[in-house]
Write a structure and sequence with these properties.
The chain is of the alpha/beta class. The protein folds into two domains: 59 residues, Orthogonal Bundle (DNA polymerase, domain 1); 271 residues, TIM Barrel, CATH 3.20.20. 31% of the residues lie in helices and 17% in strands. The strands form two sheets. The protein has a ten-stranded mixed beta sheet with strand order 3-4-5-6-7-8-9-10-11-12, with helices on one face. α1 packs across α2 and α4 crosses α5.
């Protein structure tokens, strides 16, 4: 007999086939469960109307579906929405939906807190609360109001995705396979500071886009701003990135949070040009978003424009990312759950 309350969300087709065989359900039940969970996005077993009442009752008794509604939803003046979800041991995580013309991008969390402790990120300043399971990650995607309208997914929410590699890759499998949500991996971007083993596996086992959190081109400064840095030096990081063909459909980008007077000098820009020009990539300049516990300052707009123009003129494709959802603390680097304190 199955262990009580094990979630079905996050399982792959082979695991559903094994479950069906173990429980002596009809063989076609495996496909039905995949369809109901990943195609039709049902939130209860009772909604699986082509399963017998006896089978639904058995599933209800022995398994959890793995779905839960958000605890709270906040909407920004610019249309960005931030969802709060229950996580491990009473903790919570946040997910942000960013609308832009005909695009709906969901910024997904992979951990409760983050062990990378980047000095400019609010998530890294909160207590560590563990990895999210594939079920918890997928629930964020399936439980937002815009689920059926989502055009892109970015794993840039709370946590370091490649510090939770097993559950991330399981999630990506469900998202991109035909029996799952059947999304193109070209609609998914995974962000990382550069966790060696996780990055090596991700590059081999997934076709999703990669975004590297860079933030300075100098090793000593990066270690100070990003104390963990995934245990991978910039030299080794770039050596690993050069093993992949970035001239095809799969894309590489670098995230660069600009901190006034820290990483925005001409010296920084020229070094970025030196190390990035040989690699087909995009640089996203992001203005620092102030929060309690960090003493950095936002740069002036003209500093960002100057950096962007110099990089572009030197052959490094660069954009300035708009700050979205700042009035609800949903902008880049601001996700840090305060639900318990508010309650």
């Amino acid at each position: 007999m199955a262990q009580e309350n094990l979630p079905l969300l996050g399982r792959n087709y082979a695991e559903f086939q094994a479950l069906v065989a173990t429980e002596h359900y009809p063989r076609f039940t495996a496909k039905q469960l995949c369809d109901w969970l990943y195609k039709k996005h049902v939130a209860t077993f009772d909604a699986m109307t082509n399963l017998s009442k006896t089978l639904r009752a058995d599933l209800n008794e022995n398994y959890a579906l793995g779905r839960s509604a958000p605890l709270e939803v906040r909407t920004s003046r610019d249309g960005t929405r931030k969802y709060l979800f229950a996580a491990n041991e009473g903790r919570t995580v946040e997910t942000a939906m960013i609308p832009d013309a005909d695009r709906r991008t969901l910024c997904v969390s992979s951990q409760v807190g983050c062990r990378m402790h980047c000095q400019f990120c609010a998530t890294g300043q909160q207590p560590w609360g563990g990895n999210l399971s594939a079920a918890q990650i997928l629930n964020q995607i399936l439980s937002v109001d815009e689920c059926d309208e989502l055009s892109n997914l970015v794993f840039m929410g709370m946590g370091e995705p490649l510090d939770n590699t097993d559950e991330l890759l399981r999630t990506l499998q469900v998202l991109t396979t035909e029996w799952g949500l059947a999304m193109s991996p070209r609609r998914i971007t995974v962000s990382t500071v550069g966790v060696r083993k996780g990055l090596e596996r991700f590059l081999k086992e997934s076709e999703a886009h990669l975004a590297v959190s860079l933030h300075t081109p100098f090793e000593d400064e990066r270690r100070e701003l990003m104390p963990a840095s995934g245990g991978l030096s910039l030299k080794d990081l770039f050596a690993l990135l050069r093993t992949v063909n970035w001239r095809g459909q799969r894309k590489l980008s670098f995230e660069y949070v600009v901190l006034a007077g820290v990483n925005d000098s001409a010296r920084h820009v020229e070094e970025l040009i030196r190390i990035l020009r040989p690699i087909p990539c995009l640089v996203n300049l992001i203005s620092y978003h102030p929060h309690d516990g960090a003493e950095f300052s936002r740069p002036k707009d003209m500093v960002l424009v100057r950096m962007r123009d110099r990089l572009n003129n030197s052959g490094v494709h660069t954009t300035i990312r708009a700050s979205r959802g700042m009035d609800i603390d949903a902008a880049c680097g601001l996700l840090s759950t305060t639900y318990a304190q508010r309650s």
